[in-house]
Amino acid sequence: MIKKIAHWLSRRPKRILSFAIFLLLPAVIGYAATGVNYDILSYLPSNVNSVKGENLLEDPFGEAATSMMIVENMPAKYTDNLLNQIKKLDHVSNAFWLSNSIGIQFPTNLLPSDLAKNFDSGNSTMMIIQYDRPAASAETMATVAKIHKIMNKNCFLAGMSAMVEDTHQVINTELPKYIFIAVFLTLIVLLISFESWLMPFLFLGCIGMAIIYNMGTNLFLGQISYITKAIAAILQLGVTMDYSIFLYRRYEEERLKYADNRDAMAEAITAAFTSLSGSSLTTIAGFLALCFMRFTLGRDMGLVMAKGVIIGVICVIFILPAFILIFDKQINKYQHRKLLPDFKKMNVFIIRHKVLFFVIFLFALIPAYYSQAHTGVYYKMDESLPKTLNSIQANEKLKSTFNMATEHFIVMDGNIDNGTMTKMEDRLKEVAGIEKVYSYHRLLGKGIPDFFVPDKLRNIFKSGSYQLLIVTSDYEVASDNMRTQLKDVQKIVGEYDPAAYITGEGAMTEDLISISNTDFNVTNYISIALIFLIVAVVFRSAAIPVLLIVSIELAIYINEGVPYFQGVTIPFIAPTVISAVQLGATVDYAILMTSRFQEEIRNGKSVKEAAIISGRTSDPSILTSSLTLLCATLGVTIISQMAIVKEICSMLARGAIISAAVTMFLLPSILCIFEPFIRRTTWHWSGTGKEKAEPDKKDKEEIPENKNKAPETGAAGISVTEV
Q1: Given a cut of 60, is residue 487 above it in pLDDT?
Q2: Burial readout 49-61 (b: 16 or more C-beta within 10 A, e: otherwise)
Q3: What integer is the mean pLDDT of 294-306?
Q4: CA neighbours closer than 13 Å in the CB half-sphere of residue 352
Q5: What is the DSSP letter of 47?
Q6: Domain annotation for the chain: domains and CATH numbers
Q7: CA-to-CA distance for 617 and 592, rounded, in angstroms?
Q8: What φ, ψ does residue 682 adopt, rounded to 5°?
Q9: Which of 431, 438, 463, 514 is the most exposed place for a label (fewest CB within 10 A)?
C-alpha cells in the first residue's frame, strides 16, 4: 500500500505542493484565533480545595481577579477621578479606596485602625480593583492594559492580573526573535552538514509549514499556555528535522540505483515511512507521557508537541519529496565541498579503549544521579519574570509600604455568629507571619450598625450564604514559613467550619508543589515504560532497551545536575519536561547507532568492526540532529527574560549535546562489551537466530599474518587491523 502511495506522490510534486501551500491559509487563521493562557496556576486540577475556593471568589463573590493599585504623593481628588475612570472600564466589577467606599461623611475613626492603615500608609494610598473575569482571561488583560494607559508614573499596579498582562507583553515581544535566531542558527548547521547550498532552505521550508499546521490546529484545543506558545515552534523544529535529513539521505542512496529520480524518491519514501514511524514513536511517547500529569500544563504541552511530531512526519513524507523533485536540478547544481570531519579515527580510538569508556560511564552515574536529585527548584511565579516589569516592582512596593507579601482568601459559612468569628479571628492573628485579618464582622467593630456600611464594601465580604475573610501574610509564597503558616490557618479555620476553603496564590502554590512532586515521578516512569516497550518491540530484545535507556538517562541526570553544581534553582516544571522530552527525543540517537551496529553484525562484520562502522556512519547524523536542537533552543536561552521559558530551553539545548556525547563516545563501548548478552536476549540478532563465533576469536582470525600485506577493509573503509 505504501509503495503505491509513494509512487503516486512522486509523480505529482507540483500538485501536492500547491495543495500544501493552500492549507497554510486556514492554518494561519487557526493560529491567530487560538487563545493563550498566561496563568500557570489555572492548570491546577479542579478538585483541589484551593481551586474550589478560587471558583467561589468568582461566583458568588464576583471577584474573579483582583489588583492592588498604590498611588503615591497624589491628592485624594486625583485618586477619585482615577477610580471613576477605572470603574467605567469593561469587566471591572468593583473599584474602591477608603474615602471612595465609605463616603466623606463616614467617621473613619470608627473603623478598626488596622483596616484604615491597610488603605493609607504615609503618602501612599492603596486601592482595590476587582474584575468579573479570571486573571488570565483576554478581557481582564485588555482591561489591565487600559488601566496602565490612564494611570500616571506615581501609580503602581500589583497583583496576579497585572503580572499576567506583563507576561503577555513580554512573550509577544520576544517570540519573533526566538524564531528568527532558531532559523538562522539551524540554517548554519545545515549548510555545514550538507554539500548543497539549497537543500537546507528546503528543509526549513518543509518544517516551517509543519509548524504552521501544528499551531493552526491548536484551535481545536481552545487555548494553549504561554509556555507552549513560546517553545512549541522551536522545539518542533529541533526534534523533527531528523526526519527530513533521513529521507534526503535515503533519496541520495536510491538515486544511484535508478535512472528516474521519481522512482528513486518513491523507494526512499517507502523506506523512510517505516523508519520514521518507528523513530517518531519514541518522541511522541515522551511528549504523551506529559499528558499524565495532574498539573494540566503538561497535557497542554504534551498534546501540542505530540501532534507536532505527527504532523512533521506527514509533511516529510508528502511535502519534502515534492520540494526535492521540483528543485532537484538546482540542488545538484549548487554544491560546496564537504565540511563535516570523518569520524573514523575517533571511533577506532573509542573501541580500542572500550573498557576505559565503560568505566567512565559507570563512574559518571553516581555523581550525575546525586546532583540531579539535589537540584533546587522554585515555584514562585514572579521569580520567573524580569525584575524590571511594572507588576514586579509594584508587588515589591506593596510589600515594603503595606507589609503585604501574600494574601489568603478564606471562603466559609456566612451564618457563623459574631462571637465565634471573633474567637477565630483572634486565633488567626496569633499565627506567625499573619499581619491582618479582614472580614465583614470586623467592619462592624466599635458599634457600627449594619445599615451604615456601604453595599459596595459589604458585598466584598458577604454574598449569599458565604462570607469572605482576607488574611494578609508577610511570608513569601512557596517558602517553608508559608507552608507552616497555611497548615496552622487550615487547622484553626477547620475547627470552626470544616467545609471552608482557603485559596489565593499561597494556597494554590502549595497545592502546586504537592502535585508537581507526584507528577515528576509518574511522568518519568510512564515515559521510561513506553519507550522501553517501543525499543523492545523494534529490536525484539530484552537487553537493548535497558542499555539504551540507561545511556540516555545518564545524559538526563548530567543535564539536570548541572544547576546543582552552578548553585542555581530551576522552575518546578523543568525536570518533568526535560525527563520526558530529552528521553523521547534523543533516544533516537542511540536507536540509530544500535540499528547500524546490528546491520553490520548481520553483514558478517566482527563486533569491533561493526561498532566502529556504526559509530562512524551514525555520528554525522547524531551531531547534526543535536546541533539542530541546540540551535533551535539557543535563541530563547540567549534572549528570553522569562526565566521559566529560558531555563527549559537552556536545559533542552544542553541535553541534546550531552545525549549526543554519551551516544557517540560511550554507547559504542557498551554495545561492544554487551554484545554477547544482547545476542542471547534478542530474537534473531544476527539475522539467522544462530549464535556467531566469539568476537575476540573472529577478530584474531581476521588479522593478516603477513605484516607487509595491505590491510583488509570493510564497509565505510574501516580497516580491520586498525582495531
Answers
A1: yes
A2: ebbebbebbeeeb
A3: 94
A4: 10
A5: T
A6: 1-33+194-339 (1.20.1640.10), 61-166 (3.30.70.100), 342-376+522-723 (1.20.1640.10), 395-510 (3.30.70.100)
A7: 10
A8: -125, 130
A9: 514
Q: Assess contact for 304 and 214: CB atoms under 8 A.
A: yes
How far is Cα of residue 405 from the mean position of the Cα atoms in its chain?
Answer: 28
Cell numbers for 33, please give them: 484565533
Helix (H) or strand (E) holding 497: none
Q: Please, which residues have CB within 8 angstroms of residue 33's CB and are 6 or more apart in sequence? A: 219
Residue identified by cell 518513491 is 266
- Condensed to tens digits (0 to 9), the pLDDT of residues 421-437 reads 989 999 999 999 998 88
Q: What are 554's three cell numbers?
A: 545518564
Vertex 346 angle, CA 343 and 349, to 5°: 150
Question: Residue 119's pLDDT is what?
Answer: 55
Element (DSSP H or E) covering residue 355: helix 354-373
**Is residue 578 exposed (0-12), middle (13-18) or buried (19+ Cβ within 10 Å)?**
buried
Amino acid letter, 595: S
- The answer to whether residues 140 and 91 touch, using CB atoms and an 8 Å cutoff, is yes
Find all residues with CB under 8 Å of 397, minimum gap 6, and list them. Answer: 70, 156, 158
Rounded to an integer, what distance in angstroms lies between the CA atom of residue 36 and that of residue 57? 23
- Strands 65-72 and 155-158, by their bridges, are antiparallel
β partners of residue 500? none
